[in-house]
Amino acid sequence: MVHVKKILYPTDFSSYSNQAYFHALNLAETYGANLTVVYVHTPGTSGDRAYWRGQLEQVRPVNPKIPVTHVLLEGDPATEIVRYAADAGIDVVVIGTHGRTGVDRLVMGSVAERVMREAPCSVLVVKLPRGVTAPEKPFATQL
Predict the structure, then answer these.
(1) What is the pLDDT of residues 4-19, one digit of tens each?
(2) H or E segment to which residue 18 belongs
(3) Three-state helix/strand/coil letters over 63-96
(4) Higher pLDDT, 106 or 95
(5) Is residue 10 within 8 Å of residue 93, measured between CB atoms?
(6) What domains does the chain contain, in order, with CATH numbers?
(7) What b/e readout covers 13-38, taking b as 16+ CB neighbours within 10 angstroms?
(8) 3-state class of 6 per DSSP?
(9) How many whole angstroms separate alpha carbon 5 and alpha carbon 16?
(10) 77-88 helix and 111-118 helix, angle to the nearest 10 degrees
(11) Which of 71, 2, 78 lies closest to 33 in space, CA to CA?
């Protein structure tokens, strides 16, 4: 039997993350699970903590029966997501991916891939449907 009571949805406010959000909501509704929305602020990037806290607080399910918590972390995104998942006893992480391959993936790195490899729980990696394109830069870096 699948036991899903705590879902972690990390976001960078991009189209890729938004796609994962719908999967996280569906899981939360299906299993009656709590949803934690997390954003990891990387020091040295644009926007201060108050700005990102405001953006984070706007991510709310329409369904009021889904308990939601917002968490703002600071540091390396993959490291902080994995650490939070372990510390909070998360059952599943639902994360979006850009789906880069080859040299692009090696150069840019992949937060989703690192989370998948290092997380202490199951990880659902969500990509945009085939043929759907998104802006080159996530919202978080377009300030």
Answers:
(1) 999 999 999 988 889 9
(2) helix 15-31
(3) CCCCCEEEEEEECCHHHHHHHHHHHHCCCEEEEE
(4) 95
(5) yes
(6) 6-137 (3.40.50.620)
(7) bbebbbbbbebbbebbeebebbbbbb
(8) strand
(9) 24
(10) 30
(11) 2
d(CA 131, CA 141): 23
Structure-token match 């994995």, residue found: 82
Nearest CA-CA partner of 59 in 102, 113, 96, 114? 96
Antiparallel, parallel or unpaired: β 92-96 and 6-10? parallel
Q: Which of 101, 95, 93 is nearest to 127 (CA)?
A: 95
Statement: residue 23 has pLDDT above 80: yes
Determine the Cα–Cα distance for residues 125 and 57; give it in Å rounded to an integer: 23
CA distance 129 to 39: 23
Q: What is the pLDDT of residues 103-122, one digit of tens each?
A: 544 434 589 989 999 999 99
How many degrees, rounded to 5, is the angle at CA 124 between CA 123 and CA 126? 140
CB 27 within 8 A of CB 33: yes
Judged against a pLDDT cut of 70, whether residue 132 lies above it is answered with: no
